[in-house]
Amino acid sequence: MNPPDKVDAARAILRDRARRLALAPDSQATEATVDVLEFGLASERYALLASKVHDVQPLRELTPLPCTPPFLRGLVNIRGRLVPVIDLKRFFGLPERGITDLHRVLLLRQGEVEIGLLADTIEGVFALGTHRIQPPPATLAGIAAEYITGVTADRLVVLDADAILGDPRLVIEEEVIS
């Protein structure tokens, strides 16, 4: 082969590769995935759909609120907005070890409602194959199935953000009788 033949052969190989890469992927070959944000609570792994988490902030200046349920840890000021912070460990009845500077607040928003969920650690965001998510058991460490989307084989519990935001216990109506 002389040099122009080598160049032509290389171009043909590259054209063939480009043609194969330009083909639409086989819908059966690609796995359906969802992006999840993984976080830690009480030495266990949990996740929420990343699309439901508006922001993640460090826990700063938590102001306790009197006459509220124990799972409502207080309010935080995030960019001028007062956001209630829910302690999922108390909400689900999981063991707790106190609050540290390492805790993070996961901000969830549904319409006009915005709440923060207290997380021990943030592990990151990743794509999770939907085939890996199995139906939830009836209960899991005190967490009712209504709050669980599913569980993976490696014990990652995927929580249902809409069910948490829609829980009637989050609406606090205290009447003051005079």
Mean residue pLDDT: 83
Give the total of beta strands.
12
Q: Tell me roughly what share of residues is in helical segments.
A: 10-25%
- Can you summarize the main beta sheet? 5 strands, mixed
Shape: elongated
Order of strands in the sheet with the most strands?
A: 8-1-2-12-11
Task: Give the class-level CATH name.
Answer: Mainly Beta
Distance between the termini: 100 Å
Secondary structure class reads: alpha+beta
Strand content: 35-45%
Number of helices: 3
Total tally of structural domains: 1
Would you identify the CATH H-level superfamily? CheA-289, Domain 4
Structure description:
By secondary structure, the protein is of the alpha+beta class. The protein has a single domain, classed as CheA-289, Domain 4 (OB fold (Dihydrolipoamide Acetyltransferase, E2P)). Helix content is 17%, strand content 39%. The protein has three helices and twelve strands. It has helices at 3-22, 88-92, 161-165, and strands at residues 33-41, 44-49, 53-58, 72-78, 81-87, 104-110, 113-119, 121-129, 139-140, 143-144, 148-151, 156-159. Strands 8-1-2-12-11 form a five-stranded mixed β-sheet. The protein starts with a helix and ends in a 13-residue tail after the last helix.
Give the gist of this structure.
This protein has 178 residues and is of the alpha+beta class.
